[in-house]
Amino acid sequence: MSKDTRSEAVVDETRRRLLAAAAGGVTVGALGTGATGGVAAQDDGTLTLVHDTHFHGRFEDAGNDAIGIARYYAIVEELRSERPNTAFLGNGDDLAPSVLGLEFEGEHMVEALNEMGPDAIGAGNHEFDLGVDTASERFEASEFPWVIANLLTPEGEPVPGTERWTTVEVGSHTVGVFGMGTTGFYDITDYPEDWQVLGYTEAAEAAVEALEPETDFIVCASHVSSGVHETIAAVDGVDAIVGSHSNVVYEEPETIEGTTVAEFGDEFDHIGRLTFDVETGELSEWERIDLYDSEALDEDESPPESTENYTPRDVQSVERNQPVAEIADGYLSDLEERLGQPVVETEAELNASFDNYEIETGWGNLMTDLMREVGNLDEEIDVAVQNAGGIRSGSTYGPGELTGSDVMNILPFPNEIVVYELTGEQVRSYVEGSVRPMPSDYGAQPAIQVSGVSYEWTGHDGEGRVRNVWVGGEPLDPEATYLVSTNDFVAGRSEEFVEDSRVFNSGQFQGPFVKDTLDAEYDTIAPEREERMIRVDEVIEDATVEGAEDTLTVSFAPTDAVSSVVEDTYRLVAPGHGTVEASSVSGGEEVVVELPAEAVAEAFDATEADALSLVGGFDPNSEHYGYENDDGELIELPANASYDYYELRTSLSGEDVRATVGGDDGSDGDDSDDGSDSSDSDDGSDSDDGMDGDDDSDGGDSGGETADDTPGFGPLAGAAGVSGAAYLYERYGASDDDEN
Fold first, then answer.
1. CA–CA separation, 659 vs 422, rounded Å?
2. Vertex 367: Cα angle to 362 and 373 (nearest 5)
3. N or C: which terminal CB in the chain sees fewer CB atoms within 10 Å?
4. Helix (H) or strand (E) holding 592
5. 14: part of which helix (H) or strand (E)?
6. What is the largest CA-CA distance in the chain?
7. CA–CA separation, 737 vs 740, rounded Å?
């Protein structure tokens, strides 16, 4: 096995820099691969690891182009030059997903990384987004080793162009490096079904067995979820684990089973540096470099504070590494020519961050509405569903111009829009199966964005549930069939989307389709949130409904889960028919919610909605839910940053409500609701107690884009009796050229 796995070109470049440094031709700060020079020549028994790449195929931060790969690498060069015996390791997801990754299929990143000369990079799942053949071509074109120990061909060989593990000479030390990818490769990327994915323990043990006899130190360049590190650390002989699949930023490295574990995020925000005593394997010094842009700080913001272990670096004070900058600028200029022009003006902020896992967003509503307009089918597409992970830029846009590059960064995957015919029961099964319940590192999440369908969801104690499912403003019929638009990634990984039920292949990738549709058909857009996915943490079984003068009053006793109500969040909802905000709310032993009777009559009088939901926020009683962290400490709720509170729901009879406010449906009705949910049987859901909930994280308000104070698109198109195309025209506005 070769002791120095870097390419001949990289080694020659290192020697050139060494000779130049010896002749006084470059400064120590300009030294690159191997951290050579006067400092590196010392041998003090230490080993330093500079780690983390995880670039997602980007050359610039999604929200700030001043923070980019050329400045990132300039800092890496400094770090490599300041300690003897330094290696630079990456942890993958470098080739994709991004608009650059989609346009140039990873070639751009290989060219940049070849210039940067990492000692090894652990391959990640997004290296395979464009298929294993393209991934292998990129691996083979790389002048440094890609390592991944647990992915094998059907014949049991490493993925072409990769190694399962490698050794690197760092000063007088031989360092063993192996990669590890998530065992969920089949589900999250384009990985062939007949290729092998080994278990974490099996792969780590094989790596240690091969590396231990000839190395002084063994490190895993990780691309697995944070929780898996405990399993890898339990394998005797693993000295350190750097990076992960989870984008986690540790406050400090952890020690697990004697193994040092450090995770410092992804892309260009942080760089980690760890120094070890090689003889003992113990961590002797560590540092996290935090990149920021002083010109992007608000007037009342201060730069991050420097401490013994945290070093903020203002990128405005860092000169770009010129060779890397020239590569990046060349590709970015090419991309700007292709995609840099505005395609539409947005009057609302578009949220394309990971919030799309947790809440309904304006962007999610916009793109799924457009997905229902793909092709020229004889029938209207009833529903569209989009996996949150396919919305990818991690940023927000507008109000203002939205460019083609913006859209492609939001939707960077080569995912084709496809249309299937599903039964109502399959629709319900899919949205329910998408819910990510507690306990979870990220809290309970609906995890999708939708159009044409509305439902209530909850995620408690390891089980996701939905109820009160509506399609086109009508209760879901489990036996009926619906046309459902999605992408082929979702369809290929969801049991509800059966091959025989596919009715249309659009031939359209999502990014180009959304970009071209917006460009051709709309001048301005203003997508907002509506009640498409209603979160419910507690169900109130009994509520009293009374009418007096101009007010509809609903009263009920809160459960033990409710510490207090969040008074300005209550509203009466019938998906596809309307929403009415409460005029007043009072809490205590009895919660009393008052709604304007006239507004209720206008919203619901002319409809035949059988069930209405009164939904509102509450501060959860953490002890009632009893969620604990890994240390056995009670988690204070809500734990998820996207929510300020939980939500409760009580069901009201639409007939009773209409009668109480003077409806014209001729129903006598009485003033007391029996607490039953008259839509329970409409969608095949279980009884109300299926929504009783213990959830620690995802109830309530979300960062200013709330279902409570922000109107949505209004009633769904099907409820108003208009076609999807007419609905989109009305809501978003057609361009001047589209007069037909």
1. 37
2. 135
3. C
4. strand 591-596
5. helix 8-22
6. 99
7. 9
Which tokens is 409 given?
Answer: 């960064």
Hey, what amino acid is at 170? V
| Class in CATH terms, 342-531+716-732 | alpha beta
Ordered by start, the domain boundaries in the chain are 37-289+322-331, 342-531+716-732, 536-691
Q: Please give the Cα distance from 440 to 463 (Å, whole number).
A: 11
| Cα 359 versus chain centre, distance | 11
Tens digit of pLDDT for each residue in 526-536? 998 889 999 99
Asked whether residue 367 carries a pLDDT value surpassing 70, the answer given is yes
User: For residue 617, what are its two tokens?
Assistant: 């926020």
Expressed in percent and rounded to 5, the helix, strand and coil fractions of the chain are 30, 30, 40
Q: What is the mean pLDDT of residues 594-604?
A: 88
CA distances from 480 to 246, 425, 453, 500, 661 (A): 40, 8, 14, 17, 34
Homologous superfamily (CATH) of 37-289+322-331 is Metallo-dependent phosphatases (3.60.21.10)
DSSP 261-312: EE-B-STTSEEEEEEEETTTTEEEEEEEEEEE-GGGS-TT--PPPP-SSEEE
d(CA 326, CA 239): 37
Can you give the pTM of this predicted structure?
A: 0.61
Residue 102's nearest CA partner among 330, 323, 331 is 331
Distances (CA, A) of 313 to 71, 309, 318, 511: 10, 13, 8, 34
DSSP state of 57: T
Other CB atoms within 10 Å distance of the CB of residue 546: 16
Q: Tokens in use for 283?
A: 């961590």
Residue range 274-284: average pLDDT? Answer: 94
> Contact, 510 vs 411, CB < 8 A?
yes
Q: Comparing C-alpha atoms, which of 599, 629, 600 is closest to residue 612?
A: 600
φ/ψ of residue 702, rounded to 5: -135, 100
576 by Cβ neighbours in 10 Å (0-12 / 13-18 / 19+) ranks as buried
Residue tagged 């009796």 (tokens): 721
